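If you are new to this repository, start here. Below is one unmodified record pulled from the training split, so you can see the exact layout before writing a loader.
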Amino acid sequence: MGSERFCPRCGGTAVPPGEGGDWNCVLHGPVLPLAPPVPPSAEGLAEARRDAQVPLWLPWPLPSGWLVTGFVKAGDERSGVRAAGVALSGPGLAAGPADMLLVSEEVGVGLGAYYAGLSGPDPGPAVDDGPPDAKVAAEGRPVPLWAVQAPADRAVYAGEALGRWLWAVLWPAEAGVMILDRLQLTDLREPGMDLDLPYGAPCPRLAPQKDDAEGG
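And here is the target side for that same chain:
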């Protein structure tokens, strides 16, 4: 995995800190650096779990035909990993292949919003505004999710689980119907978690797109 780090809010290159300082983005100032995508493998999972201060949510059992296709994480040596995501790919319920990214993060990191295609760091007023649009179960606890307005090529849902933001980003937008299937989420950080996960080719949607930084 390369040494370059990125802004979790725009995908631009993050500037390394001076002694005792913060990583910085030219657009967003101090940020928690986003590492390059972690490959989908048992070794990759071990890397994703290392220093994770937030859940690594995985639908389990996996939807039929779906594979784990990568991990993302943002944080530094001082703070640990404060935002993390698990990517999956498989057959969409509507038509064609689909991708899903589940992100758990602390308030203000901006990783979920970046993959959702939003300019701000958090989901905004849509969350907790009226009845939820969907529900999942996280470690057996019901979690309401609200649809978040996003670019037309994806569907985005967000809510709160275990005191952190929970984002579900699905491509294409038609794949959003999968969230209505009452997914059961488990935290891959849990002690003794030894699932025999099926891995697929790395999800290309995880790679930071530096051009996005031009738009802020």
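Two things worth knowing about this chain: The longest helix spans residues 42-49. The two ends are 26 Å apart (CA to CA).
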